[in-house]
Design a protein that fits this description.
Layout lengths: L2 H45 L6 H29 L1 H20 L4 H29 L5 H5 L1 H24 L12 H7 L2 H13 L4 H6 L3 H9 L4 H20 L15 H15 L2 H6 L1 H7 L7 H29 L1 H24 L2 E2 L5 E2 L4 H30 L6 H29 L1 H22 L27 H4 L1
Antiparallel strand pairs: 1-2
């Protein structure tokens, strides 16, 4: 390879990385929103007198996830009609309106409405980002670039945590007035407008997906986009593969349906749905949404804001750093080995937490306390869980959702899978307070069980997509183990 070719290849790689980072900022919005509400929830309880209404207080936290599910469900269909970039702009606009509306909310029902609107925007972004990255990234680095979605989520969590702490510190408390007489918790929500504006501006500058352009007979535009991300010598072949796939889709338009013989859906759609559900059923968001009760039970003074901030920062920084493990290895060793490793590690770490909490002693105030070494062991288990999840299931599921579905059903199938993920997230978030009041040992034992089942699910049902073009996914085997059980997704259609 000549010096000029090396320089051109390097420039193309930088261009596709920049495009992928911009698209993945939708994940940043989700991470930012999920942590912002945690910093504001106690002040909201005080302002709107929700202290005696724990279910309503919990719904204020979780309601955005319902909006996420709806937004995710319709995003793929909308993107196939009007394009990926316009849908990104719609998502950014919804989140921008939600952030300002939430900050100005005058009643709890008003706040819930704005949170649901923001959820619609986040759900849209969660679907479009992996789909866009999968369609624009070269197959050799597609996995690493799709992992940026999870990295953006973790960075969003950290940024919101920092923002909340700074605003609360400046006001002297989340429920204290800051600028223009508005309480600090309101400015926490209004601060969400900044990433929404950045995401919208960057999305406006992004080129449209070459697959969408080719599907709309804009061949020259599609070729121009491809030439900006892959070597010129490969453009014609790549465009030819896309156009061949589109012709086959039109000739076999009846197979664009998601319906199949396996409980009414195609096997590959069930794989996507179950991947999404297992990502949440292991209870990862419990660590971020309800960490205060965990740290309190292992002996930390969470009434001290500095201590609480330090503990949360450690966990969020770990979450960010381990995502780079997935980015580095996903295109080297594949998706399946990482998922299997993650499932095994989560079984061990969650099992350790379940055993530790089985030794809890309930205090006079009804709070569980872990005696002796069980407290530190639970803390180790929690951070190991974050490590194994953050390096595997967190980013890899987003990678697979962007590439596992055949082109003809990708938009609709990805929307359903992402909606299932948000609904499962909502279910876990809503049920944890009740389950934990019954038994933390049982709760973490349940999450351990789901982690164990996820191992066998990946082993028997999830295909490897490393190194495959999106156009080759039509012939993908969605059940890998057992020759008699192997199902050709295209035949099943």
């Amino acid at each position: 390879m000549t010096t000029q070719e090396t320089r051109t290849s390097s420039q193309l790689r930088r261009k596709v990385i920049a495009l992928s980072i911009a698209a993945a900022l939708g994940g940043f919005l989700f991470g930012f929103d999920s942590s912002v509400i945690n910093g504001a929830v106690k002040a909201i309880d005080d302002d709107f007198a929700l202290g005696d209404l724990p279910l309503l207080s919990g719904f204020v936290v979780a309601c955005a996830l319902l909006g996420c599910a709806v937004g995710a469900y319709f995003a793929g269909r909308l993107a196939d009609r009007i394009g990926r970039i316009p849908v990104m702009l719609i998502g950014a606009g919804l989140f921008l309106v939600s952030s300002i509306g939430s900050g100005l909310a005058f009643a709890v029902w008003d706040l819930i409405a704005w949170r649901v609107i923001g959820g619609l925007g986040i759900g849209i972004a969660s679907v479009i980002a992996p789909a866009y990255i999968a369609e624009i990234a070269p197959k050799a680095v597609r996995g690493s670039l799709a992992s940026l979605q999870q990295l953006a989520i973790t960075l969003g969590i950290f940024a919101a945590l920092l923002s909340d702490t700074l605003l609360q510190g400046a006001a002297g408390g989340a429920n204290e007035p800051l600028w223009f007489g508005a309480d600090a918790w309101r400015w926490m929500f209004i601060a969400c407008a900044i990433p929404a504006l950045v995401y919208g501006f960057l999305a406006w500058r992004l080129p449209e997906s070459p697959r969408y352009l080719a599907g709309k007979d804009r061949r020259d535009d599609a070729r121009k986009v491809l030439a900006s991300v892959i070597p010129e010598s490969e453009v014609d072949d790549a465009l030819g593969d896309i156009e061949k796939s589109l012709r086959e889709d039109r000739e076999n338009s009846r197979t664009a349906s998601l319906r199949g013989k396996m409980f009414g859906l195609l096997p590959v759609v069930w794989v996507g749905i179950l991947l999404s559900m297992f990502q949440q059923l292991v209870g990862i968001n419990v660590i971020f949404y309800y960490s205060t009760s965990l740290w309190s039970s292992v002996g930390f003074d969470t009434t001290n804001s500095g201590t609480s901030f330090t503990i949360s920062v450690v966990t969020s920084v770990i979450n960010v750093l381990v995502t780079f493990v997935a980015i580095f290895f996903v295109d080297k060793i594949g998706r399946r080995p990482l998922l299997l490793t993650g499932s095994a590690g989560m079984v061990v770490s969650l099992g350790l937490m379940a055993v530790a909490f089985s030794q809890a002693v309930v205090t006079d105030g009804g709070t569980p306390q872990l005696p002796g070494a069980w407290g530190p062991l639970a803390l180790v288990g929690a951070n190991l869980f974050v490590i194994f999840f953050g390096a595997t299931w967190g980013p890899i599921v987003w990678v697979l959702l962007g590439e596992i579905f055949p082109n003809r059903i990708r938009g609709k199938a990805l929307g359903i899978a992402a909606a299932a993920q948000w609904l499962t997230n909502f279910a876990i978030t809503e049920t944890f307070p009740a389950l934990s009041s019954f038994s933390l040992a049982f709760t973490y034992g349940l999450y351990t069980f789901f982690a164990l089942v996820s191992f066998f699910f990946v082993f028997f049902a999830v295909p490897e997509t490393k190194g495959r073009s999106l156009e080759s996914m039509d012939s993908l085997k969605v059940v890998r183990r057992g020759s008699k059980a192997a199902v050709d997704e295209k035949a099943a259609a």
